Amino acid sequence: MLKRRIIPCLDIDGGRVVKGVNFVGLKDVGDPALMAQHYEDQGADEIVLLDISATNEGRDTIYNLIERVASNLSIPVTVGGGIRSLSDFHKILACGADKVSINSSAVRNPDLIQQASDKFGSQCVVVAIDAKDFEVYINGGRENVGLNLIDWAKKCEELGAGEILLTSISNDGMQSGYDIEQTKAVADAVKIPVIASGGCGSIDDIIDVFTNTNCDAALVASLFHSGQATVGDVKMKVEGIQCKIEK
Fold it and tell me: Where are the domains of the chain?
């Protein structure tokens, strides 16, 4: 039986966890360290921490916040936002993170994927892809870079990415379900794990993406932040769900 990971996502802005719709309209929902600990207690497999304003503001991610979150957790922590160099990778991993997620910087400098994989190991390198209509966007979903989603996902794998975090821009925050078509296409095109992100509004949405795609994990934000369900609730429902098509 394949283990499907349930990963709460904490989008960080100004040192606080926020949530919006289609990457805008952000609202404060809590303290990152407290929320991360709460989700680990519920049985989360990993935590993703995304500093969503770092790239657009041209600054480094918040290192002291990473330390505060990671120091209290025993599960893996992935950190993204504002990472532009191998030095940034080193600093984030030194703060206690287990994986580093790159998005805009990977598109602008694909060699960074291979350099980071060679230096720190592919297991540390997560390439986040924000996509709409099978096209790749950067800068928080603001800029279409003219890359085909499938071609870019394959390129990331070739360069040494250990995972792909795929977010549907159209579905983000809508709580209407994951983008099954895009997720299935990417998961079928690569052999590395794919994390489905954007659109989860119910436990049924998670069952749907696990049943109808080969994704390895589901990223969840609003469903957990709102208290509509716990990680434990989700795991009880999705236990035993299998991919329709084995990798």
Answer: 5-238
Which strand (E) or helix (H) includes residue 104?
helix 104-108
Distances from the Cα of 216 to the Cαs of 116, 196, 202, in angstroms? Answer: 22, 8, 18
Quickly state the pLDDT bin for 56 (edges 50, 70, 90): low
pLDDT-derived band at 207, boundaries 50, 70, 90 = very high
* CA distance to 2, 25, 82, 151, 166, per residue, from 147 (Å): 31, 27, 21, 7, 14
Count of CB atoms within 10 A of residue 191's CB? 9
**Environment class of 20 (CB within 10 Å of its CB; exposed 0-12, middle 13-18, buried 19+):** middle
User: What are the catalytic residues?
Assistant: 11, 130
User: Which of the four pLDDT bands, split at 50, 70 and 90, describes residue 14?
Assistant: confident
pLDDT for 208 beyond 80? yes
d(CA 155, CA 149): 10
14's CB contacts (< 8 A; 6+ apart) are 53
Of the candidates 123, 30, 38, the one whose C-alpha atom is nearest the C-alpha of residue 72 is 38
Look at domain 5-238 and name its CATH class. alpha beta
pLDDT (tens digit per residue) in 111-133: 999 999 999 999 999 999 999 99
